[in-house]
Amino acid sequence: MLALWGLWRQKHRAIVARPLGAAEPKAETAMATVTLRRSNPLRLRLRRLRHVLGRPHVALSILLGLILLYLVVVPLVRITWATITWQAEDARLARGFEEGALTLFHWQRTFLGSVSRELVYEPFVNTLVTSAGATALALFLGCGLAWLLTRTDLPGRRLMGNLVTIPYILPSWTIALAWVTCFKNSRLGGAIGFFEYFTGIAPPNWLAYGPVPIIIALGLHYYAFAYLLMSGALASVDIYLEESGEILGANRWQILRRITFPLVLPALLSAFILTFSRSMGTFGTPLFLGRTVGYYTLSTSLYSFLRQGFKADAFILGLVLIALSAITIYLNQRLIGTRKSFVTIAGRGLRVRETPLRRWKYPLFALVVLFVVVCVLSPIVLLVWQSLQLNDNDYSLGNLSLHWWTSLGGNRLYAEGELGLLRNPLVWGAARNSLLLAAITATVVAAVGLLLGYAIVKGRGTWLAKLLEQLAFLPYLIPSIAFGAVYLAMFAQPLGPIPALYGTFALLVLVCVAKNLPFSSRAGVSSMLQVGKELEEAAMMHGASWFTRFRRIIIPLTTGGLVSGFLLTFISTIRELSLIVLLVTPSTRVLPSLVFRYNEQSFTQLADGIVVVLVVMSLASQWLISRVKGADLARGLRGG
Amino acid sequence: MQRIELRHITKRFGKTVAVDDVSLTIEPGSFLTILGPSGCGKTTILRMIAGLEEPDSGEILIDGRPVFSSTESIVVPAAQRGLGLMFQSYALWPHMTVYQNVAFGLEMAHMPKAQIRQRVSEILADLQMAGMEDRYPQELSGGQQQRVALARMLAPKPGIFLLDEPLSNLDARLRMDMRSELKRLHRDTHATTIYVTHDQLEALTMSTHVAVMCAGKLQQLASPDEVYRYPANLFVADFIGSPKVNLLEGHATPAPGGTRVDVGQFVLEPLPVWAEGPVVAAVRPEDVQLSAEPVAGGVEFSVYSVLPAGSEAIVNVRRGETMLTVKVGRATRLEMDQSVWLTFDPRSINLYDKASQLLIAA
């Protein structure tokens, strides 16, 4: 050590020559009288301002705050404003008003008018019924599967565990389309489905359309939330907690009820809220399964209001949806309260208790296999099969054909001469748009999420950081279809320096980015918390600029989170319909909206074929995610 | 000159006052330890000097140059203050090798590559870490990580060392070794050093000055010896020393040759100070003479418990409600409940005013 300091000591000796601690009194008094020269007040104030704004996380917070304000708050204000002022299109219904003047006309018409019953109250009840039913089904399936696949000795748990998450990866309305394919009946005119073809029995209307299939189709998609959250929670309940109960004389049922259940309750409530609010805002499933028999939910009703040009009324329904969603989330947070942290008590490498199923083992195994085959795999198989039928709903082998995939088109008998999927420029264009939308959205979201996380974590405890966190959470409260409506209102006309974005691709990106912010900002916060502030401060001490610190320290340390965040957003964007259905135009068409269009035109095989393409794309991205270390679906759900 | 001066520094976090109007001057080349229980604001002071935290008010001067001033809105960035900081967690970058960690500061200073290589290998060799250049921090033991953190701090040759509980993550043996190495390092470099710890032994063994803090306030700034012998107030007296000092509440009256203090069960006199009224007498356990036989002027106590600790033994003795701790040599053999006689050296007793808690000076 001595040698090392030789040179340096030489250099510093002149400065530090005094014996340690013994201060020369003269020097001390000289130093003590150093007083700072006063600058003039204006320069002082400027210096202070520049200093506060010059802190990177403050500047970043302000910038991000403004962007969020613009992307989330302003649209909400505008949509509300539109419902309480006269609109140009009201000329059809009323006269003698001044456009832009305040009025309660829309609220009265929506809630007290002659069509309120069909267009508002019934959809409201239907929304509650389908969401509650779907949530109940999803929680039952999710919890049951989670328990069977994490806490028992059921055979093949790994494989089953992977298979049962597939519905979550697919577009939410895949099952709805498969359901129609299977159960559509001849009573409403139109072709018969798979079921009637093979059994000769026409399924009753209540089974083919309306609330029952909507509940089942939604439940079979959203149970994955409950499954992922609950299996994570169940796997992290430490065996010792349960063994302590056992030693104190509790039986298996008492342990489950008194120890395990309270520990996983927060996860259960999260699953509930996630499922319920998503079911409320979903659009595809209730449309495909309800419209045929005039069964509307708030989201489909909102859509038809817009279709008919009653913008203000549609916005009111949007506000109702937002209120409903906000109330549910508020109640949930009141219920969970401080219990939120239960699931994270246990560390890594804990042992999990396996309950032996004994004689129930194989019956339950058979049941799970049956579930996977019927509810997970068969909808996909059915859609593939249908896309290979030359004539719709003819399940004979002779009817199999690649026509819908490869035809050169022109045959007016088949879908008015649409080209086969693989030759269809419409499909290629939509696929290109889909990939582009997902890739751009995912990139922007991952980057903004990290920046938000940085600003929030660095500013912890300041009101600016709290505000930012709340703002970023806001889109979570707004159901997808309502979010789309909000953006429609916001960007139909130019706003300040921003031109009217309706019909542009940029608008789709914007809405997808905004809707994904709650998840990405949480992921960003948790990545930043993992990095910790000292690693950045150490670089600061050495004089690294903010940019250098980001490039050399923060980004390398958050790569795992960034990549998994990117892929999760990518998956959820590529299958998104509810959010963008109101905003797409022919030039910005994406694959899900093309499915929607073909479905409306009754080009069933084409619609199904595109769903198959989407399924393949989703599964491929999911496979990619599983390749990334530390990334998994459940993590994305919890936002970290 | 590497003198550091803090003037009326106050820092709040929300409603809590972390550092409350602290002023202190750290002489060039001295080794100052900031000592205090956790949450007393000692790390906050270090971070404010480093430039990682901004005081709400006050001034910080290094070499007589203001690096922070609330009234003048001066904030010199951390890197321009010419100091090195070692974090309690070490804060080694996990995605960089040992070499990259140590070289980082030199790169930031735009040192030529060849020189960086030379300097890094030189400093690693000196810290007995040669050959570890390509390892990642996770692959090193706690002691090795500590050395890398030290190397990283030293590489750019800062004139001031700031060390935040650098030894708290090491086991007892390694801690002893590192203490002597750090002391040696300070001797060799003469860099002004500020060392934060809650371990009084570290404070007393290593530093030239000790600043004792409590609840954001500076309690005493003095040499280790003075802090131990003449604690400025009851908090410092109680905090410094192991086993703890005996505090006896009593009443002081003037007496021939000084002051007479009645502590209830017995009387201490004559103390060579002037005091009157309610006081607290502080007696170090090692300053009490214990005898198994009756002695002249001895106060009779009974043995409550005996805790042998190798070279010495800690004895708790009791008289009525009064309990005292006494340190005795290992030769003394004592049984519980036996009678012993204590004598006190009046010159080793510090007297504190009960109301103000302050030391009554001789």
Fill in the keyword field for this structure.
heterodimer, A: 640 residues, mainly alpha, MetI-like fold, 28 helices, 68% helix, 0% strand, disordered N terminus, B: 362 residues, alpha+beta, Rossmann fold, OB fold (Dihydrolipoamide Acetyltransferase, E2P), six-stranded mixed β-sheet, five-stranded antiparallel β-sheet, 8 helices, 23% helix, globular
The count of DSSP E runs of length 2 or more, i.e. the number of strands of chain A, is: 0
User: What is the straight-line distance between the termini of chain A?
Assistant: 46 Å
The CATH top-level class label of the largest domain in chain B: Alpha Beta
User: SSE order of chain B, as H and E?
Assistant: EEEHEEEEHHHEHEHEEHHEEEEEEEEEE
- In spatial order, strands of the major sheet of chain B run 7-8-9-3-10-11
How would you describe the shape of chain A?
globular
Work out the number of β strands of chain B. Answer: 21
Helix content of chain B: 10-25%
Q: Uncertain spans of chain B, ≥5 residues at pLDDT below 50? A: none
Verbal overview:
The complex is a heterodimer of chains A (640) and B (362). The longest helix of chain A is centred in the first third of the chain and has 36 residues, at 116-151. Chain A is built from 28 helices and no strands. Chain A is globular and about 100 Å long. Chain A has helices spanning 2-13, 25-32, 41-54, 56-83, 105-112, 116-151, 157-163, 166-169, 174-183, 194-199, 205-208, 211-235, 239-247, 252-281, 284-290, 298-307, 311-336, 361-387, 403-406, 425-458, 463-473, 480-491, 505-531, 533-541, 546-574, 591-600, 604-627, 633-638. The two termini of chain A are 46 Å apart. By secondary structure, chain B is of the alpha+beta class. Chain B folds into 2 domains: 4-239, 3-Layer(aba) Sandwich (Rossmann fold); 246-353, Nucleic acid-binding proteins (OB fold (Dihydrolipoamide Acetyltransferase, E2P)). In chain B, helix 5 links the parallel strand 8 and strand 9 (192-197). Chain B is globular. Chain B starts with a strand and ends in a 9-residue tail after the last strand. The chains are: A mainly alpha (640), B alpha+beta (362).
